[in-house]
Amino acid sequence: MEGSNFTNEIAELRDSPSIQSWELEIERILAGKRDHVIDRLQSVQEYVEVLHARSEDEGRSRTTFQQALRSVVQGWQSSRPAPGYYFSAMLDLIGAYTPAFGFVKVLGHMLKWGRFGNNAIIGSPVTGDLHLKALRVLENYFPTAPALEEEFPGFVTYVNMLRGLLADTNYSGHALRRLIEFEIVTITDQEAVDVIRANIETILELVPLFLRTSRRQSASRDLALVYLEAAVTGENVDAVFAESAMTCHARFEPSQPPTISFETGEVITFYFSAEELEEYSRLQHQELRVQEIAKTIHETGQTSLVEELTQILEETLDKSNEEIRRLWRAVGQSGMYLAHGKYGPYLYLPHAVNIRLNLSEKSLQNYVMRVRFGAEPEREVQTFFRNVRAQAAGA
Length: 395
Known about the structure:
With 395 residues, this protein is mostly helical. It has a domain at 299-394. Helix content is 62%, strand content 7%. The strands form two sheets. A three-stranded antiparallel β-sheet has the order 1-2-3. A three-stranded antiparallel β-sheet has the order 4-5-6. Helix 10 crosses helix 11 and helix 16 (274-300) packs antiparallel against helix 17 (306-316).
């Protein structure tokens, strides 16, 4: 019976497509009444394309559909609460066919509610991140920056929204990639550096961008700069680069310098200056040595290496916030912690080891200013260490 109803409902779209019949069909899609077919075809766009292909007049079907979708989107009151699947289907249609008013409606919704779909009816089913989906829909309207921004007033508002997302690690990778595509931000700008260091998952967005054919000429240097900024965090950067390269049907090799190779035989070798290579080697050596020291103390209880660890800490306290975090993480990878005590830092293993690191007077003052009190501009360091100490206390 259901199949018969469906056949009857789409008969007019096949025999004599009109704006009115397409408006009705679009509303059925948004209401979830076509999910049984869409799920089988895997996308709303594929469903619409199948209907076009089956129409007696495919050209008329496409023309009336575009007019109907434009009318539905124009009349859509995005501030009105709706089920999550309604918002998701609307984004599918707008993203696939970029109707007039679609950009303004989606962007306006995001600016009003902070996150796309925040006014969705609680408990309604939806798959995936609606806000990220909405951002990708907006991307379809501006693959590149317009030649004359004044002719596209919504573009400036869009760019400002992207800048605001740089501080949100959930969407900062997408936002940074778009701003680089628009040539508004370069990979060496401080805001780009801050995003990469705050979230190395940004690599997943940037590597495919730099591997595009149109950007291959500068890829060696661009990839090297991303790698350096991500590597300073002490996280597993090589694994993220490898994952990113795979999405481009390429292979990442963590050699010195690293490379990305394609099935065609083309190889991109990361280009570092001599000073950058020296700094990278120093950080790698220091990280491995700190891990080795902490692991030895953890496994054997041997404390003779504490003096060397103290010296490394004293030297690091004069470095950047990122390098301090890198040292703390290196210790943490051994199962131990660097925590804060009454008289300064100590090496801590719950219920087993508690070893004070005897800093020099000058280093202790530096430690107190940068770590304990978090004096500006080191507040971010303070927050990080508070999290580390909380983790250690709860272990």
